[in-house]
């Protein structure tokens, strides 16, 4: 049932304020304490985390790496499951192994989990489907409570994965003493406001539609982001290519001059994901290098960022303000809507793109 929407993907994008609210509520007590699981997880038991997943779920892991390292000072390695499992990496003692999967049935992710059995100190999964193999075979399974996701392009599962991972990070940071009670309360306050902020972003649907009409004529599109926005650039590029079949690639902004800038000319739209945070000026200077080569920039930023830097850009998409750490969750909305409207404009099969399956149970 598409609940009045044209596609499951549109319905699932629109559901995000509600399901994110549910996911937060499942792990937050009324007193503001984070309770992840009945089985206690003491983050002082671990010296490092490895995170393994595929596709969009791997970008949720990559985002969480920035959070874990910055907020909880805990080193994290992220791997795609198909590489991890055959590399047979050594797993040092006191390693927490985390597997993220919407379906809980992705063959490579499951094989990676099985490889870690008996090697990692603890196996934790972040899954949507409670009775899935990955959930059953983990020591601890944290459900993301996104509800059934039908569209092949993952949307609400991604943002709910991020919410649950962020709450894990806050729990870890508190346990490890890198976040005091007051700072934790600030993070929780921001998190509680997130569903409403996501709703505001969804109200920008017409702007994203207008930008997508321009994008739909492109042959190649680049996505740029820095720091915690780099994984979002990867997610934006994946979403666009999988449903609109436009070639899209993502780069960490700072990598631009190490090669990809050679691609830029007046035919290449460049989507820049840049909230006005500590790295904003750096990203803007990369964006100006793009514009100096006639690249067409779509700048996604907040009002402050737009006011400072949108001179000469091709298109501006203004996001509501949000606490810095939560920007990756909010900026998933324009990534999804740009891809969605571009695909609709091109007339491709949004919910069931060619050559793809919702759950990849073969390797
Ligand atoms: O079910 P999983 O989360 O394990 O699936 C992983 C990927 O196959 C999945 O995220 C894929 O990349 C999506 N089609 C992206 O939208």
TrEMBL record:
Protein localization: Cytoplasm
EC nos: 2.6.1.16
UniProt subunit comment: Homodimer.
One Gene Ontology cellular component annotation held by this UniProt entry: cytosol
UniProt key word Cytoplasm: yes
Function, in words: Catalyzes the first step in hexosamine metabolism, converting fructose-6P into glucosamine-6P using glutamine as a nitrogen source.
Molecular-function GO terms, alphabetical: carbohydrate derivative binding; glutamine-fructose-6-phosphate transaminase (isomerizing) activity
EC top class named in words: transferase
Domain SIS: 37-178, 211-353
Keywords: Aminotransferase, Cytoplasm, Glutamine amidotransferase, Repeat, Transferase
Lineage, opening ranks: Bacteria, Pseudomonadati, Pseudomonadota, Alphaproteobacteria, Rhodobacterales
Keyword Repeat attributed: yes
Active-site residues annotated for this sequence: 358 (for fru-6p isomerization activity)
Catalyzed reaction equations: D-fructose 6-phosphate + L-glutamine = D-glucosamine 6-phosphate + L-glutamate
UniProt protein name: Glutamine--fructose-6-phosphate aminotransferase [isomerizing]
GO biological process: amino sugar biosynthetic process; carbohydrate metabolic process; fructose 6-phosphate metabolic process; protein N-linked glycosylation; UDP-N-acetylglucosamine metabolic process
